[in-house]
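Exercise 7.
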Amino acid sequence: MDVETAISSPRKIQYVEETLREMEAGNLKIRVRSLENEKALERMALTQSNMMNLLMASVALNVGIIASSPVVTGVCIAGAVKFGVGVLGGNAKIKKFDKTQAKFVNTRFVGDDNED
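Solution. The predicted structure, written as tokens, is:
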């Protein structure tokens, strides 16, 4: 075992030294992922999708109201209803996401009866 350590140690030290030099030179960047940030981005994507559906419903409804042709008005109103249903579905997804995330916020352990 000691012979293996004596042979592999210089290689390991060289690897550590090269890594540190790369970090000092700015060629190596360490990326840290945070679960809180990941979940915040996921919720933001859901919210953004919901806002896009709301915007499209509003545009379709406005075009349908000012359109002169009854056919165009009908198509635009149908599009507004479709996007409106998408908004309702998006709200349900956001509420489900928040409910799921609320399960992980509990700061007390099961069976922890100590009151501070």
